Amino acid sequence: MKRLILILAVLASPLFAVQPDEVLDDPVLEQRARDLSVGLRCLVCRNESIDESNAELARDLRLLLRERLVAGDTDREAIDFIVDRYGEYVLLKPTTTGSNLMLWLAGPIMLLIAAGMGWNFLRNRSNAHGTADTDALSDAEKERLRQILDE
Asked: Domain with 65 in it: what CATH number?
């Protein structure tokens, strides 16, 4: 029974990430903070949102986000403030503009280049096998080849 409780506690640990002292009194602002914090990356845990992370930096980001919302910022202004402060890496879903556009397009472009090179290689390879010219052999070479094949 103790093991079951321990396993459930470990599995439910992301649920305890937002501490009770962080929760705002206004339920509307708290819901906005929760909705926004799901899209922000914990810089310590990498692929966890700050809403799920127990790291101290994630807690600081949650508090900062709530401070900005209480101060009257819109959702966009609060996110922009955090991005300006910590960089675009803090977004779990980065934008597809500016320098990120090159990163988004690099994979498909490299795939197309590799497919083109593979197609070109296979096309040249099939042409190379079809150009074997037996007429280039002299009569003496043809006779010698016939002798070898007869043996």
From this structure: 1.10.8.640
